[in-house]
Design brief:
The complex is a heterodimer. Chain A has 4 helices and 6 strands. Chain A is of the alpha/beta class. Classes of the chains: A alpha/beta, B alpha/beta.
Chain lengths: 155, 403
């Protein structure tokens, strides 16, 4: 099972977290990192487990770098029933109405096209006491373990 | 041969530029120079004290120095301590990213008057900027002129109860000042109709969660584009909020015409309504939040090897992420220019800064940072040092004790 970390970012915080995850995981896994701005839905394959890290911007919307991917999902309505992913959201509870809206929008859009979400969507609060990586690393390890049993042979 | 890039201004635009340069070319020598002994500019002194989530981008910037190899040179003012020409001589590229620290002032009959304050100056005083003046007396009925997020930040801070500032990094002086302000009403006045206000809708809705206010929003005329509809919807949502005695009134479409003074101090703003009727708005102070301008100390034209970034380049519009995108584009342009001139003579880089006394490096800032975090009282996340002397005493300690 290959791992690919995909990030959607606006200020760079999600990008930094994606790079942190890669550093932490690459000792035990083959893991790539890509900006969602460089990925099209048809690029996603069934042999890779996708760890998606996505922030929120504006009015609970996708961050800038995830917007083309989100628009491609809406426009093409691709069949992603072969795709497995997990998603970690970044948000700020100073804006409670739209807290972590970006990761929620993206998770729903992927699921609507048949992709299988592994584990729960875990979210970080920029106004809270935790560091994002302290939540994201245990999340990644847990969803990778679960994905390994679901996708078959582990890397 | 190492290529040297100096970035004047260690605020978000300068830091994002350094990040993009070093990500593309880790072999570059990138120096961030700031006239303050501390880095991060607007993130530290402009982003509101109660928006700590926004300030979290400082973690990215710390990595810049801790892992990407950028160097910080604080307490160095280009023009005063080192001439810009000398800096350009010493570096392959110099980028001016010093922001716009001056308040744009309204051209109103009757000015100047006591009791009229720029939002930038007030923000610096609130957030313990070492060069800020004292916090002014705003009286019971301040009026805020402006329809952008800076105006909303000031409004929210003035409107909050002390408990609502828990978790912020608002300093003890500003905390006392707000608790004792005696503010009864805050009127926020925009020149344009509500649908054209440049408010971020989420920041408007944030006001609806305030605990001690009664909010009224003047009815807006129909007709708005999509962005305008979002602002109007947010304003409609907070209209009628009634959680406490401090009254907030949003007024729109009022063209300021002059100020009225008594004894040298403002007592009213005069405006013209959309229907052409003149109106006098009594107030005890006027805070103008109508934009920013440069202080004129650095040239505004690019030249060979000289670039501009951030608000210094684009003017006082655009959020932090918009300036990040600009910085990434500028990084590509600088790298292309460097690559186009591979045989340029070798430059000395930061050696030109050696003459600067009390220069603060990243380790010096780290000592200030650690001391500020350690000094935070229970309901604050940080207590800033608020004088250059206090900052330098900590930052330059090691250097002073060296033989």
């Amino acid at each position: 099972m290959k791992l690919a970390i995909l990030y959607g970012t606006e200020t760079g915080n999600a990008e930094m977290l994606a790079e942190d995850l890669q550093s932490a995981l690459e000792a035990d896994h083959e893991v790539s990192v890509a900006n969602l701005s460089d990925i099209a839905p048809e690029d996603l394959d069934g042999d890779t487990f996708y760890l998606v890290v996505c922030s929120t911007y504006g009015d609970g919307e996708l961050p800038a770098s995830a917007q083309p991917f989100g628009a491609a999902l809406d426009a093409g309505d691709p069949d992603l029933s072969h795709v497995h992913f997990a998603i970690f959201g970044l948000g700020d509870s100073a804006y409670p109405d739209t807290f972590n809206g970006g990761s929620a929008v993206l998770a729903a859009a992927l699921a609507q096209r048949g992709a299988t979400m592994i584990g729960d969507r875990v979210t970080h609060d920029a106004s809270g006491p935790d560091l994002a990586e302290d939540l994201a690393l245990p999340w990644a390890e847990a969803v990778i373990a679960e994905a390994a049993t679901r996708l078959g042979a582990a890397a | 041969m190492t290529r040297h890039v100096a970035i004047v201004g260690a605020g978000p635009s300068g830091c994002f530029l350094a990040q993009a340069l070093l990500k593309a070319r880790p072999d570059l020598a990138v120096d961030l120079i700031d006239r303050l002994p501390v880095p991060y500019g607007l993130v530290r002194y402009g982003v509101a004290a109660d928006h700590q989530g926004t300030k979290a981008i400082a973690r990215q910037f710390a990595r810049l120095f801790e892992r990407q190899g950028a160097r910080f040179h604080g307490n160095v003012e280009i023009g005063r301590d080192v001439p810009l020409a000398a800096l350009r001589e010493a570096y392959d590229a110099v980028v001016l990213a010093s922001g716009l620290s001056g308040d744009r002032t309204p051209d109103l009959a009757g000015l100047p008057l006591a009791g009229v304050h720029g939002a930038g100056a007030l923000t610096r005083a609130l957030y313990d900027h070492p060069d800020a003046g004292p916090l002014p007396d705003l009286g019971a009925h301040p009026l805020i002129l402006g329809n952008g997020n800076v105006a909303l930040d000031i409004l929210r801070l003035l409107a909050k109860t002390p408990d609502e500032l828990d978790g912020s990094d608002l300093g003890p002086r500003a905390t006392r000042w707000l608790a004792d302000s005696g503010i009864e009403t805050i009127t926020i006045v925009g020149r344009s109709p509500a649908a054209q206000a440049r408010f971020d809708p989420v920041m408007v809705r944030e006001l609806g969660a305030l605990q001690g206010v009664s909010i009224t929003v003047e009815a807006a005329p129909p007709g708005a584009d999509d962005a305008g509809e979002k602002v109007l919807a947010a304003l409609a949502q907070i209209d009628g909020t009634a959680t406490g005695p401090r009254r907030i009134a949003f007024r729109f479409g009022l063209t300021p015409t002059g100020v009225v003074g008594e004894g040298g101090r403002i007592v009213a703003l005069t405006v013209t309504r959309p229907d052409g009727v003149a109106e006098t708005l009594p107030c005890t102070a006027l805070v103008t939040a109508i934009g920013f301008r440069g202080d004129g100390t650095l040239p505004t034209d690019e030249g060979p090897g000289l670039y501009k970034a951030g608000w210094f380049a684009r003017g006082p519009r655009g959020t932090i992420p918009e300036n990040r995108a600009d910085a990434q584009a500028l990084a590509l342009r600088i790298l292309a220019d460097l690559d186009a001139d591979p045989d340029a003579p070798a430059k000395p880089g930061a050696a030109v800064l050696d003459r600067c006394r009390d220069r603060v490096d990243y380790d010096g800032w780290s000592r200030i940072d650690a001391a500020e975090l350690a000094a935070a009282p229970a309901n604050r996340c940080r207590q800033k040092l608020d004088t250059r002397a206090a900052m330098l005493a900590l930052a330059c300690r090691t250097e002073e004790t060296q033989p």
